[in-house]
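seq as requested:
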Amino acid sequence: MNHPHPWPTDERPRERLLKHGAESLSDAELLAIFLRTGTAGQPVMALSRHLIDEFGSLRELMTASARRFCAIHGLGTAKYAQLQAAMEMARRVLDQPLHQGDPLRSPEDTRRYLSSRLGHYPHEVFAGLFLDNRHRIIRYEELFRGTIDGAAVYPREVVRHALEYNAAAVIFAHNHPSGVAEPSQADISLTQRLTEALKLVDIRVLDHMVVGHGEVTSLAERGLM
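struct tokens:
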């Protein structure tokens, strides 16, 4: 006996994914595949749409705290653990092209790496990618958290880390939780201060990248450093 298909004909995201690729699916359809089942009286597609409306976006849902996520009917700690595991796997895949000892091959690799590291934080994080004289990665380190401005980032601490790692060059990056990867005047001034401080110990600042939601802006490419 054939059982009725659990999805309406026009709402079968799994089949659409297999036929057309994951990129063809909406946020709600991708979420529905992840959730697999709905709740009593609410099919999974309806639940997915409700969740995205409730949180404001798929990104806000994916980066929500455990408390907020689990407070929604139809979710819970098991789903939260699955979601965190899926996000960490995605981050590790994106990190794969760049790890200690690898040379930087392209600006795009660097953008993907920094976006995977910094793009999900709800607060500002300032990081450094420390390199040797052949632009091979020595270390990635998150240096400061909070509001990133001239008062929050200490050049002396940055220089200390760069000397400790015996770096010849560094790429700085920080995120804008607003999602807009537009450098501020404070970002430009901070970059100049750090560049001058590191120049005194013969360490070059190659770039400062601002990470938003799905976009990364290079101050070097903009001619702002």
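Residues 144 and 153 are 6 Å apart (CA to CA).
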